[in-house]
Design goal:
Blueprint: H1 3-11, E1 18-21, E2 31-38, E3 45-47, E4 55-58, E5 65-69, E6 74-78, E7 80-83, E8 91-93, E9 99-105, H2 107-113, E10 126-128, H3 129-136, H4 140-143, H5 149-163, H6 171-183, H7 189-196, H8 200-211, H9 215-232, H10 239-245, H11 251-262, H12 266-273
Antiparallel strand pairs: 1-2, 2-9, 3-8, 4-7, 4-9, 5-6, 5-8, 7-10
Helix pairs in contact: 9-11
Length: 274
């Protein structure tokens, strides 16, 4: 999803331009939350990012379009896209769209719901939603006949109830991911193993099986997210301070990761988007 909205979700910064709707109690192990954001008009191009929780991003109308621009390709989206995995140097452009409706899933439940392997997003982290909708009978065009956000949430929940008869517990995975999110990327694989009391092979299998990422990749994503938040909230950023405060070894390490995820240096990105 656009990184500006993802950061609002992580920081729980909600108001009349962006808010969260809790899923029905029996579906909380599948849906992390529903979100509505009014599109920010300052920029037409926004960085897309993911924090390990796959998300479906719905445009207001079925015929609405957007362009997802990666380093070497452009994908044209109609109606909705879905993203997951590690997203690198990928942006979205959309015009004449005033609102996004986002459904954010717990990772293990998402892959089970759409009967896909956790490596599905390894080579293409953003795909048109219709590619996945066909896999479990989600009627995209019928969804867009819903006129209100409430109707849309009911439509999605009813579909999930029809497909998933007995939601599985996600407690173990949820506890692990919450622990890592609170660390905001400042943890390392070594300290994670030490603090949780598990061995590396078990942790690696656990992550690949449930979210399709290596523990190192997950930590790296959250470290970048926190660095991006600090950078974009600064008037005149000090790159060394940003790097040190978010667990990077040095400014060069921060610079390398930032270019990996955005395609730009921190200062170039800051000049464009601030």
């Amino acid at each position: 999803m656009p990184i500006n909205y993802l950061q609002k979700i992580q920081q729980a910064e909600f108001n009349d331009t962006g808010y969260r709707i809790s899923p029905s109690p029996e579906l909380t192990s599948i849906i992390e939350g529903f979100y509505v954001f009014k599109k920010e008009a300052v920029q037409q191009r926004h960085l897309i990012f993911n924090d390990g929780f796959p998300a479906i991003v719905f445009l207001p109308k079925y015929r609405d379009t957007a362009s997802v621009i990666a380093a070497n390709s452009t994908t044209h989206i109609q109606g909705a896209w879905v993203n997951g995995g590690a997203i690198k140097n990928t942006y979205v452009e959309y015009n004449h769209i005033d609102q996004l409706f986002i459904v954010r899933f717990h990772p293990k439940a998402f892959y089970q719901l759409f009967t896909i392997n956790t490596q599905y997003f390894r080579h293409q982290a953003v795909v048109p939603f219709e590619h996945l909708a066909q896999k479990n009978g989600f009627a995209v065009q019928d969804f867009f006949t819903c006129n209100t956000i409430k109707e849309k949430t009911i439509f999605i929940e009813n579909h999930i109830r029809h497909v998933v008869k007995e939601p599985q517990s996600q407690d173990e995975l949820r506890a692990t991911l919450m622990y890592m999110q609170r660390a905001q990327g400042t943890d390392t694989v070594s300290t994670l193993i030490r603090n949780t009391g598990v061995n590396y092979k078990w942790l690696e299998r656990f992550f690949i099986k449930n979210i399709g990422l290596l523990p190192k990749e997950y930590i790296q994503m959250h470290r970048f997210l926190e660095a991006h938040r600090i950078l974009t909230s600064s008037g005149t950023p000090n790159l060394m301070n940003v790097a040190v405060s978010t667990g990077y070894y040095d400014a060069n390490h921060f610079l390398k990761d930032f270019k990996l995820y955005t395609g730009k240096t921190p200062l170039a990105y800051h000049r464009l988007y601030m």
